[in-house]
Write a structure and sequence with these properties.
Blueprint lengths: L2 E2 L2 E2 L5 E3 L4 E10 L2 E2 L4 E4 L5 E3 L5 E6 L5 E5 L3 E2 L1 E4 L1
């Protein structure tokens, strides 16, 4: 049985007019609390990061209209539109 990631999509955007990039950040949690080691990637790109010990991630994205893919061993991938 696969378990889906339960995400608290607290996405915060910081628009940087000079670099034209956007900061996306949030916390990944399941029913037991924060999830360290979750891979967070922009679908169709090489941009990505891994959540820290508190389940927090922060990622600079070029396209604010993309989709984030959250993956963790033993769980179904979760897709969240930015």
């Amino acid at each position: 049985m696969k378990v889906a990631l339960i995400l608290l999509p607290m996405l915060f955007f910081s628009f940087l007019s000079i670099a034209q990039s956007h900061n996306v950040s949030g916390t990944v949690q399941d029913e037991n609390g924060s999830m360290p080691g979750v891979t967070v990637a922009v679908q169709g790109s090489t941009q990505g990061t891994i959540t820290d010990t508190d389940g927090f991630y922060s990622l600079e994205v070029e396209d604010p209209q993309g989709t984030l893919v959250f993956s963790f061993i033993g769980m179904e991938n979760q897709l969240i539109e930015i």
